[in-house]
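Write out the 3D structure for:
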Amino acid sequence: MLTSRNSLKSRKELDAELGGAARAWLDEALAEAAHDAADATATPGAPRPGASPYASPPWELRYAAAGRHCGQENADSVRSLLLVESRASLPSVTRLYDQGTAAERRAVLLTLHLLDLGDTALPLIEDALRANDTRLVAAAVGPYAADHLDPHAWRHAVLKCLFTEVPVAAVARLGERAHGDAELARMLNDFAAERTAAGRPVPEDLRTVLALTAPAGEGDHPARPNAAPAAPAPTEES
């Protein structure tokens, strides 16, 4: 079942849950990631000694095996720690995303805001939002999207959540970015009208977001989707 929030466990939390063999594997994996980060810092752009310039660093191979060694329930967190410890570059995260399974892609998306990438990883967010995999959509609307998606793309990301039934609680900084957004309110009302015309229910999450779009002072009286227009005032002829 899809949860409304994507949470990552800390190293301390993982150590408390993992068995001895899994902890040892994680120690080795993180040491490899840290070593790769140190090499990259000391000699930027230089290949690792004895390695093909096209070879992936050892920690990237560990990335794919995280679920097998630490449990699928911990895979997101382990993969995120590897990305952070290695100070993963844009080529690394792009390679892991493009070549990865849905679970491996999800971990990349969940970690982007913890890496020093600026807005250069936005193509990964945009790709995930084009998918119909709700796990990827939910991961894509996290803090990185909140920080870097422009208003137009962010509004469509919110609509994508409603369309795919991803809980809007997954959308980072929803209240902040939706506040006073008249264009988002218009899009929500249009979406609600389409649902009603098709005989389908309007998601409660849509009403939640619509309430957030109200300007200051109007929060207690948000616009209602599909509200009937007011009757025209009577004329003297009537």
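Residues 11-40+56-148 form one domain.
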